[in-house]
Amino acid sequence: MENEKVQISDEEILHIAKLARIKLGDNEIQDYKKNLEEILDFANIVNSVDTENIGETIGVNENYNRFRADVVTNKEMRDKLLQNAPSQDEGMFRIPKVIS
Amino acid sequence: MIRDDYEMVIGLEVHCELSTKTKIFCSCPTEFGGEPNTHCCPVCMAMPGTLPVLNEKVVEYAVKAGLATNCSISQNSKNDRKNYFYPDLPKAYQISQYDKPLCNHGHVSIETPEGEKDIRILRIHIEEDAGKLNHDEYGRGSFVDLNRAGVPLIEIVSEPDMRSAEEAESYMRKLKSILEYIEVSDCKMQEGSLRADVNVSVRKKGSTEFGTRTEMKNMNSFRSIVRGINYEAERQIELIENGEAVTQETLRWDDISGRTFSMRDKEDAQDYRYFPDPDLVAIKLSDEYIENIKKALPELPESRKKRYMEEMDLSEKAANFVTSSKYYSNIFDEATEKCNNPKAVSNWLMSDIAKVLNEREEEADKIPFSGKELGELIELIDKGTISNSIGKKVLNELFENPKAPSKIIEEKGWVQISDEGAIKEVVIKVLENNPQSVADYKAGKDKALGFLVGQAMKETRGKANPQMLNKMFIEELKK
Amino acid sequence: MNITDLTVHELIDLLDKKEITSQEIVKAYADRIDEKEKDVQAFVTVTTDDASKMAEKIDSEGRNGKFSGIPIGIKDNINIDGVKTTCSSRMLENFVSPYNATVIDKLHAEGLISLGKLNMDEFAMGGSTEHSYFHNTCNPWDLNKVPGGSSGGSAAAVAANLVPWALGSDTGGSIRQPASFCGIVGLKPTYGLVSRYGLVAFASSLDQIGPLTKDVTDSAMLLNLIAGYDEKDSTSVNIEKKDYTKALVKDVKGLKIAVPKEFLAEGVNEEVKNAILEAAETYKKLGATVEECSLDIGKEALAVYYIIACAEASSNLGRFDGIRYGYRAENFDNLREIYINSRTEGFGPEVKRRIILGTYVLSSGYYDAYYKKAQKVRTVIRDEYQRLFEKYDIILTPTSPTVAFGIGEKSNNPLEMYLADICTVPVNIAGVPGISIPAKLDSNGMPIGIQLIGKHFDEETLFRAAFTFEQEVKFRANNKPEFKK
User: How far does chain C reach from its first CA to its final CA, in angstroms?
Assistant: First the structure.
């Protein structure tokens, strides 16, 4: 499997871009596809490493059970939180109508 | 009712908001209501650079729920990110649990016409709620309020073990009751703190294979769950009978039209790209931690039911009713302690109190008076201080303006007249005013006595002691 | 005396002796910025006016601690309340932060004064600062060369004396590599030592904030200020607070240093290689044991890095959706178009490339082959380091296989660009600390840095080894950036 080159179809790259909410122009598709294939070809090295009986690293240290006490400490700060809103009304973020 | 030759297969994913003081990953209040975006901070608003820290109570409450539903508790658990874009989801991912939920493989039992039935629970996991979109009727757009974003939820996923809308309702009621008993949620369905995604499929009876299922999202009343399931089952049967296929899809139940509608944007092929949240660390629960929570669990409905039947001699029906809600059960315990008449207490709960709630379309949590007050009311009747019919008036008063029943009857002047002199006065007055009835009685028409007693009651506005009235009329008429 | 030439510990001495005021320091830097910023372009936002007011206040009210009245520069992905945090992206061009990062709270509590926000590769993705939406930053040693990246603004500002020291962030080398390119000291602390709260996330499991300084002493002092457990960051580690300046002793006798041969193999510039070998000799001469060893994980670490970092980034950058803050496209007909147009126009090509790669490796059908596998290989790499550290105290490698390259010279082939991170990336994968210190200039007058790698939470040994080397080779005393045009 190591020697098999990664091949990505136009549909696939467009599907991924759609999932990421990014639009690729017609002239960008081939460029992004080629880069992605190249990097994935390289990244496939990981599949040559023997990881039998090896756990996944989740986080880089051995921390666990980091909990917070259930106490309200935050103060209202709406104006500050909304100061960067591209569009707002009555203390809420305004967006085009969403059909529920 | 659906056609005899089909059966339904129903599974529920119940979302329950936990009644912690703060959100799951930040120290904002979870309180319902409040001006839009005032229960928010940089963390729950997903400002760049902010990080989540898990609320310890959320883990505790989820473990409680797991233990109360007979789940095994995972000693190793973690949080995962579920990635998708929606305006009510500020990080563009929901922190949830994917392959290592806190609780696994439990069950609860429900009553069915065929007897008790176990509904299996696949898993319970913790996650964060989303915000709310408000829609403007003038078409100016939608408005995002993130007060609910980050409120802690548990999701309780059942196995597809229910076979009718009624079973699904019983299961949901049972879960609600358990969650209320263990005090991890206020379970207010109208506020959305308890809601269910309902999976429905149908199949020919006798078949062991599952049909294609549909999922109705966010059902938040028992009535709509029942209606939705029946509607959906019928719709699916009709499709199958017409030789069409059921499409696996997500639906929205519309309560007004009584129909389901397809929900998902066809353009959106969902791929949630779950992966462990690198901003959070593993959850490791010791035996001791789990054991301590187990020890602190309050008495659950099963055990209360047994106690009521064995120690208080309630019928199974009465015991089922009283334990169907923590609120009933707590009022029952309190009232019984006060008046020592468990049967009377259960009767009041099952008939008059349930009737009022029903008329008001409210649940037991809305009972405005205490068990002590109900107990006092029953005590007053038992002692003869008031009549049964006055007792019902006192109950109505308790619903309107709860206070001690003794105070109510004093203020309203509803104390039963048991003074012999006072009663005699009324009896003589009634006899004088109704010579015809007196004559009838003396002519052997016993019915006339009832009329006279009624007149005396009217005269005293129901307060005269009926036994004394009866006795005194007979004495006077003999004269 | 030229104030902006001084290290922070030298400034503190003068402040302590009252030979200088905070206002004089801030004024000197403001003047220096006025003079040199047009050549270097290290800043995104300059806040010297606010800094002057702060300095005035401190001078009039009196200093309340050792660092009170000392200026600092901050990489523009660290939030300061009321100041723009742009991440050098169009997406956040006008974003004014509503809160402070924990490190900023710590600095403010000590009376440090921010001079402004420093340029970087967009969202810290890149190694040359050429991916900034705003402008390139130039290397003070040769203005035609890149300062490295992604903390290129921080490194260039310190090297050009535009700030006395700076904070950067390091996900795969973003502090150490620009420090090396600019001839200064850059430390990536152990993962979990410094709170990430308020650092705009690139890759959560790899990011660390760290100091970029003129010398090792300043590095230890700045680490003292920012290190420590933070209840707002679940991944920060609760260990005993240390005074890293105590480790600043010129003594490496008995220290065991490993030089992995794979890090001096093909692809490493000859002059860089020689600098490492010379450094090894220097350490030997000073009494350390230096041995060649094998650490054959470079390419695997790089592969793991691009899978994990991009996967995490694709998720971390989802919040930039044009709804609550940040760039919102002008043209849209519906919600979907707000998302797509805002993100397509707001992110630069390198950021989009990594988001797409990250989305791909997490998508259904590929998760196990890439992400899950990479997490396991990550464990293997950590174990490899663990194994080496059973025998050695320090690992010595180049910081970068090359010195600073020309602006515009390298940004075409992403894979080639990624391979340049091969010396620094494995350190983030393992979560261990690494420091880059300047060793010498190459034949073109560009700085070469050496990288020292230590055990988890053993920054003290790193500082000791780095300090000893610095005192011996006296790079800073002998070399000054020339602003070559």
Answer: 26
Q: Is the pLDDT of residue A2 over 80?
A: no
Q: What is the 3-state secondary structure (H, E, C) of B186-209?
A: CCCHHHCCEEEEEEEEEEECCCCC
Chain A hits for B282, Cβ within 8 Å: 58-59, 63-65
The SS3 of residue A64 is strand
What confidence score (pLDDT) does residue C267 get? 85
Token pair 């619903």: residue: B399
Predicted-complex ipTM score: 0.96
Check if the beta carbon of residue C320 is closer than 8 Å to that of residue C326: yes
Distance from CA of C7 to the nearest CA of B (A): 30
Q: Is the distance from CB of C242 to CB of C223 less than 8 angstroms? A: no
Residue A15 is given by DSSP the state H
User: What is the CATH classification number for the domain harbouring A42?
Assistant: 1.10.20.60
All domains in chain C, ordered by first residue: 3-257+390-478 (3.90.1300.10)
Tokens in use for C262? 């794979």
CATH at B463: 1.10.10.410
Residues B249 and B368 in one domain: no
Whether C364 is catalytic is no
Torsion (CA) C147, C153, C157, C163 in degrees, nearest 10: -160
B49 touches A at CB < 8 Å:
no
Report residue C137 as tokens: 């930053």
C375-403 pLDDT tens trace: 999 999 999 999 999 999 999 999 999 99
Q: Residue B11 domain-assigned?
A: yes
Contact C369, A48 (CB under 8 A): no
- The gap from C-alpha B9 to its chain's centroid, in whole angstroms, comes to 24
Report residue B452 as tokens.
Answer: 């006279």
Same-domain status, B459 and B329: no
Residues B230 and B115 occupy one common structural domain: yes
Q: Does residue A72 lie in a domain region?
A: no
Residue in chain C closest to A93 (alpha carbons) equals C324
Residue of B150, B227, B165 whose CA lies nearest to B12: B165
Helix (H, G, I), strand (E, B) or coil at A68: strand
Decide if B328 is inside a domain. Answer: yes
How far from C102 is each of B293, C437, C455, CA to CA, in Å? 35, 27, 25
In a domain, A62, yes or no: no
Q: What rounded mean pLDDT belongs to chain A?
A: 88
Residues of chain C with pLDDT under 50: none
pTM: 0.90
Does the residue A79 lie in any domain?
Answer: no
Name the one residue in this structure whose structure tokens are 């991170």.
Answer: C421
- Number of folded domains in chain B? 3
Reported confidence tier of residue B90, pLDDT bands at 50, 70, 90: very high
Which residue, B391, B412, B433, sits at the end of a domain? B412
* Residue range(s) defining the domain that contains residue A10: 1-49
In degrees and rounded to multiples of 5, residue B106 shows phi and psi of -120, -170
Min distance A77 CA to chain B CA atoms (Å)? 7
With contacts defined as CB-CB under 8 Å, which chain A residues touch C321? 21
Specify the pLDDT at position C376.
Answer: 94
Domain count within chain A: 1
Nearest residue of A to residue B42, measured between CA atoms: A81
**Active-site residue, C150 included:** yes
Domain region containing B316:
299-412
